[in-house]
Amino acid sequence: MGLIVVGMADLKVAKHPDILTTLGLGSCIGITLYDRVHKIGGLAHVMLPTYKGFEGQNIAKFADSAIIELLNQITRSGASRNSLVAKIAGGAHMFGKSQNSDIMKIGERNAKASLAILNQLRIPVQGNDTGGNHGRTIELDIDTGALKIKTVGLGEKYI
To answer: Looking at the annotation, which residues are catalytic?
Structure first.
């Protein structure tokens, strides 16, 4: 069993018995796709909601382009499109009292964009732990599909 670390603006696919992890999700979103039949999973760590206007940059940085690329990579690795489920975590409000400014609500915008593209792609969202004002570290167990969420001061939970 190997622990595979997904960095910021990065995405990776793994098979059983590996575990995918990403650290320090603040306003960023961790998006997982998982096929329990074939025990293949993928994880993207996105920073911004949309690729539009940022063409030519790293597609893993943006929710819309990263999810599409993650879907392409996971199906090329043997996952069945019809067996996929998604889970998302992160999207915290990390910028103090500036909650009235839409531009500062990047975590909320990231979560909404992620859910919208997953809905558009007809991938059911099986778990969602977004919002709040705390950072998260997540681990996707490729054997079970469980997503462990570790939150500073709030402990661990699974979705």
So the answer is: 28
Find, among 5, 85, 78, the residue nearest to 40 by Cα: 78
The DSSP call for residue 153 is T
Q: Which two tokens stand for residue 107?
A: 């975590």
Question: What φ, ψ does residue 27 adopt, rounded to 5°?
Answer: -80, -15
Render pLDDT for 10-19 as a digit per residue (tens, 0 to 9). Answer: 999 999 999 9
Q: Which two tokens stand for residue 92?
A: 């915290």
| pLDDT in the model for residue 78 | 98
Nearest CA to 123 out of 72, 89, 85 is that of 85
Residue among 45, 42, 13 at smallest CA distance from 29: 45
- Residue 77 burial by CB count (10 A; 0-12/13-18/19+): exposed, middle or buried? middle
Residue with tokens 């990776």: 12
Residues 43-60 pLDDT 10s: 999 999 998 887 888 999
Instruction: Read off the DSSP letter of residue 133.
Output: S
Q: How far apart are CA 123 and CA 73, in angstroms?
A: 15
pLDDT tens sequence across 88-111: 999 998 766 555 666 679 999 999
pLDDT mean across residues, the chain: 93
Q: Measured between alpha carbons, how far is 105 from 91 in angstroms, rounded to an integer?
A: 9
